[in-house]
Amino acid sequence: MNAPVIPDTDTTPGLPVNWALARRTAARLVPAGPPVSAEVARELVERLRADAAVAEGHVREVTGMGEGLPLLPADVVDRPAWAAAAIDGMAELTSGAQLPKTARAARAITGTTAGLQIGGVLAFVGARVLGQYDPFGGPAKDGRLLLVAPNVYAAQQALDVPSGDFGLWVCLHEATHRLQFTAVPWLRRYFADEVGHFLSISTDSGTALLERLPEAVKALKASKGDSLALVEILQGPEQKAVLDRLLALTTLLEGHADHVMDAAGPEVVPSVATIRARFTQRRRGGGLVDRILRALLGVDAKVKQYAVGSAFTRQVVEQVGMEGFNKAWTSPDTLPTRDELAAPEKWLARVP
Fold first, then answer.
1. Among residues 102, 63, 101, which one has the least CA distance to residue 327?
2. What is the DSSP secondary structure assignment for residue 327, as one 8-state letter?
3. What distance, in Å, lies between the first and last C-alpha atoms of the chain?
4. Which DSSP state fits 132?
């Protein structure tokens, strides 16, 4: 009997990442949270878990979305648990990507390197992120809202704002993200398909990439080190089109959440003005090493997304109200483009 032929290439869907190694790396590198008493920790966890449902009730009042959906608590976790959950969500989100054939040996090496890198990145982010709604997380992979208790506590202490107000304010942002994905039936699949499409597009030849490098260097200098500018210039035309749609969507999601968390008003969070002012300054802060890492990880680009998306939401709501803004959620075709996010009047003219 002939021995079975084992192909020397791998076409397994998904990114070539050793996810188990990523989890181990993140767990090993993420720093411990701030020291607190058992009583303080227990009170914070219980309050955050309940605040997530309370916050979503306020979000529904502001947005007019989600009527009839259950009001659910959040999962309150520590830093290693958040990193592990984030890795699971990334693995699920990218599992459908159809990448070019890869030699098994090369895929194994790439997977190890990527696992180490992702684990290291999430260890860094895991010490800072306050919360996250992962539309692909949870046991059933149908969504999970996470709040990182030690980071909420550390941020509240650093900002010197009322603990109850700050926790509810954070919950307003993350509950808005949960409502975006649960109240808009097509959004989760659309996001996953766009990510899979982007990852599945075959990369250009090395020659074409090298040809764009001088232009990329010029763009990076002109943008004063904006890492997103480098990412964009190195994409081929098809990848650039998909990336534009993804950036437009995430900018809308982040800006909408930022707008809603402040629109809830002082009746819900009495110190909202102080929290917003101090938190915005915190987003811009950090030492030299921290700022470099933020730039490399694209965190500064995300801060810009908040500003652009929030301005778009505010201007549209001022002109046509929240009901008019909600037309953005009708279908993928009614989502604003990146150009329209910067010029809301263009979107208003296109989506009457």
1. 63
2. G
3. 70
4. E
Element (DSSP H or E) covering residue 147: strand 144-148
Alpha carbon distance 180, 138 (integer Å):
17
Q: Which of 163-172, 194-203, 271-280, 284-293 has the lowest mean pLDDT?
A: 284-293
* DSSP class per residue in 79-97: HHHHHHHHHHHHHHHTTT-
Distance, CA of 54 to CA of 174 (rounded, Å): 12
Task: Tell me if 133 sits within 8 A of 40, measured CB to CB.
Answer: no
Whose tokens are 């995300």? That residue is: 302
Task: Report pLDDT digits (tens) over 144-189.
Answer: 999 999 999 999 999 999 999 999 999 999 999 999 999 999 999 9
Number of CB atoms found within 10 A of residue 30's CB:
23
Collect all residues with Cβ–Cβ distance below 8 Å to 99 and sequence separation of at least 6. Answer: 11, 13, 14, 15, 16, 199, 200
* Closest-CA residue to 178 (of 136, 140, 212, 207): 136
Whether 22 contacts 115, CB under 8 Å: yes
Instruction: Please state the rounded mean pLDDT for residues 243-257.
Output: 91
> How many residues does the structure list for the chain?
352
CB of 54 within 8 A of CB of 149? no
Q: For residue 151, give Cα distances in angstroms to 2, 26, 38, 308.
A: 59, 16, 16, 26
Q: The tokens 């003219």 sit on which residue?
A: 349
| Region 36-59 average pLDDT | 97
- Segment 115-146, tens digit of pLDDT: 999 999 899 889 999 999 999 998 889 999 99
Cα(27)–Cα(83) distance, rounded to whole angstroms? 7
Asked if 54 and 154 count as a contact pair (C-beta separation under 8 A), the reply is: no
2: left (phi over 0), alpha (psi -120 to 50) or beta: beta
Which of 208-212, 243-247, 260-264, 333-337 is predicted most confidently? 333-337
**pLDDT value of residue 131:** 94
Nearest to 82 by CA among 129, 142, 143: 129
C-alpha 168/C-alpha 213 separation (Å) is: 46
Residue type, 133: Y
Q: Where are the beta strands (DSSP E) in 155-309?
A: none
What per-residue confidence (pLDDT) applies to 285?
54
206: left (phi over 0), alpha (psi -120 to 50) or beta: alpha
